[in-house]
Amino acid sequence: MGKLMRLISMAPLFLLLCLPFAFGGHDYNQALSKSILFFEAQRSGYLPHNQRVTWRANSGLNDGKASGVDLVGGYYDAGDNVKFGLPMAFTVTMMSWSIIEYRKQMAANGELGHTMEAVKWGTDYFIKAHPQPYVLYGEVGDGNSDHYCWQRPEDMTTDRHAYKIDPSNPGSDLAGETAAAMAAASIVFRRSNPAYSRELLRHAYQLFEFADKYRGKYDSSITVAQKYYRSISGYNDELLWAAAWLYQASNNKYYLNYLAKNGDSMGGTGWAMTEFGWDVKYAGVQTLVAKFLMQGKAGHHTPVFEKYRQKAEYFMCSLIGKGSRNIQKTPGGLIYRQRWNNMQFVTSASFLATVYSDYLTSYRGSLKCAAGNVAPSELLSFAKSQVDYLLGDNPRATSYMVGYGNNYPRQVHHRGSSIVSIKVNPKFVACRQGYATWYTRKASDPNVLTGALVGGPDAYDNFADERDNYEQTEPATYNNAPLLGILARLAGGHGGYNQLLPVVAPVPNPVIAKPKPAPKPKRTPTPVQLL
C-alpha cells in the first residue's frame, strides 16, 4: 500500500497509465507465474523436456501396469505421492474455468501457454484413466502405505494399486467431476487443438452418462479414499456441476433441461452454501447457472434458474458479511472454515466472488443481500483482500505462497521438496529412512516448492512453519487452481472485458449418441450439515 501511495503522490498521470498493471501493492503477475510453476513440481510420470522444476525427475512409471492399463502421468495431490482422482479432477476443472474467464489476461501475462499445459497434463491422464465408457480409474496408490513412508516420488517403494469405478462399483461424484473437468478443458482447447477438444468432450459425455445411469458414492467403491477424500456431500452436486459444464461446452439443451428438472430434487436450488471446494460443488453450480440466466439462456426455465441465482447470491453475501448467515473470518480478515488446509476454501470462494463480480458488472446488475443491495465491486474487493492476505498483508507479514516475497514457509510438508533432489544425490532414500533423515530435519527444504500455497494460519492468524505441522504447511493442487484465475484478473486491472459475451461458439453434435433421458433421480440420504 505504501508503494501505491508514493505513486499517487509522485505521479498521478503515471498511475493512470499503469493502472492495468498496478491493481494493488502486490505483483500479481509474478504470483501468477509462480502459482503455475507449482503444478510442474506435482507432476507424475515421464517429465517433458521443457520441465522447469528441474529438481524433479520421472516417477510412477509402472502405474496401472498390474491392472493392465497405462496410468502413467497425472498429478500428486499434495505433499504425498498418491494420485487421488476426485481432487485432481476438481483441480483441472478450476484451472480450466480460470482460463475460460481470463484467457486474455493470462495471455497478456505470458502464462496462458503454461496454464494450458498444466490442464493438458491432467486431461491426458484422465483419457488414460477412462479406457471404457463405464470404467474410470479413480486412484493410484494407497494413502495408508504412502503416509507410512517419507520418500521422494522418484524412490517410491509403496503400493501402487489402481482403483476403479464401474457399473458394479459406481462413483457418480468421481465420474461427474471428471466429466466436468473434461468438458471445461474442451472449451480451453477448442481453438488451439480442435481434435483434442472433441476427444475431451466425447469422454465428458460418456462419463456423465456413466455417473447419471449408475448412481453411487465413489468412496463406497474405492474405500481406501474414505480417510483422505471422503465424499460427504454425496454425488448430486457433481451431477449438476457436470451438467452445467457440459451445457457450457456443447450448448446442448439436454444439459440445460437437466439442470432445470433436477435442480430441486438434487439440491441445486435448495442448498444455501457458505463453502465451495473439491467435495461440495453447489455454490459453483449456482454461480454457473446464474451466469446462464444473465446470458438470457434460461428460456422457460427462468423461474427455476432464479432460485439457483438466489442461492448463488446467498453465498456471495455471506462472504462479504452482508448475508443472513456470514462466513467466519480470522481477526486479520481471512475466510476461516477449518484447521486443516483452510486455504483451499479461501481461494475457491474468492474465485467465485471474482467471476460473479464480473458477471454482475457485465450484466449491469447488483448483488441483493439481506443487508441491502451491494455493488459488484465489493465482491472483487473482497477477493483482492483475500489474495493480498495470503501474499503477505496479514498480522504475521507472512506470504503463504512459497517463493513469493521474503517471509514464506521454508519447511513445507512435502516429500519431494523436503528431501535432497535425486539429481543432486541419487542415493536411494528408503521408506522410513526419509522420516529419520529428512522429515525431522529442522532446516529449510533443499528444494524450494515455488508457487505452492500452503494450508495457512489458524482461526487467530497464527502459523507455525514446521514440516510436521501438516494442517498448516502442506500445499495442494486445489489450493492453487482457483487462484490462477483471480491472479490473472487482478493483474489485468480494469481493462475492458465482458464476461457475459458468448464464451464459446456452438459446437457440432457429439459423435456419440444423444444422451438418453435422465432416469428418475434417486433421493439420497440428506448429507451432513454443510455450514
From TrEMBL:
MF terms (GO), sorted A to Z = cellulase activity
**Superkingdom, according to UniProt?**
Eukaryota
Could you say which residues form the signal peptide?
1-24
Reaction equation(s) it catalyzes: Endohydrolysis of (1->4)-beta-D-glucosidic linkages in cellulose, lichenin and cereal beta-D-glucans
What are the residue boundaries of the Glycoside hydrolase family domain, all occurrences included? 28-487
Q: Which residues cross the membrane?
A: none
Q: Catalytic residues?
A: H413, D465, E474
State its Enzyme Commission number(s): 3.2.1.4
A Pfam family of the record is Glyco_hydro_9
The entry sums up its family as follows:
Belongs to the glycosyl hydrolase 9 (cellulase E) family.
Q: Which PANTHER family match?
A: ENDO-1,4-BETA-GLUCANASE
Q: This chain belongs to which protein, by name?
A: Endoglucanase
The species is Gossypium darwinii (Darwin's cotton)
